[in-house]
Amino acid sequence: MTKTSAKKQPRNLGMTPEIGSSYPAAELEELHDGAGNMYMWVASYESTRFMFTALGVTRYSALSWLIDGLRAHAVQYSIDADWFYPDDIHVQRLKVGATLRDGEVLNG
Fold first, then answer.
1. How confident is the model over 67-106, as pLDDT tens digits?
2. If DSSP states are collapsed to H, E and C, what string results for the chain?
């Protein structure tokens, strides 16, 4: 008989919406426009040594995933959980299919 271990789940640090949670209707409406284009949200943070990026279907979810990632980074590097500067987090809405170069939209 072989021993199997359950897949380790990421810690929810209190910022990430649970799967299946409801989002405000206004934010969900921003996923599409009248022309059939789809959109997503991208949250990013650039530190002196790393570039962090998180994607979401709403502004809130992208920002929440990024903050969870920044805090997970803090655990890995044994630094203070609030090591980052929240005012330096950039969140943008992008059309699906857009190309970014150095964080700026190149097309789309």
1. 999 999 999 999 999 899 999 999 999 888 888 888 788 8
2. CCCCCCCCCCCCCCCCCCCCCCCCHHHHHCCECCCCCEEEEEEEEECCCCEEEEEECCHHHHHHHHHHHHHHHHHHHCCCCCCCCHHHCEEEEEECCCEEECCEEEEC
CA gap 53, 69 in Å, rounded: 9
In what order do the strands lie in the sheet containing 51-56? 51-56, 39-46, 90-95
- Residue 31: pLDDT over 80: no
Cα–Cα dist 49/74, whole Å: 13
Of 35, 77, 87, 100, the closest CA to residue 69 belongs to 77
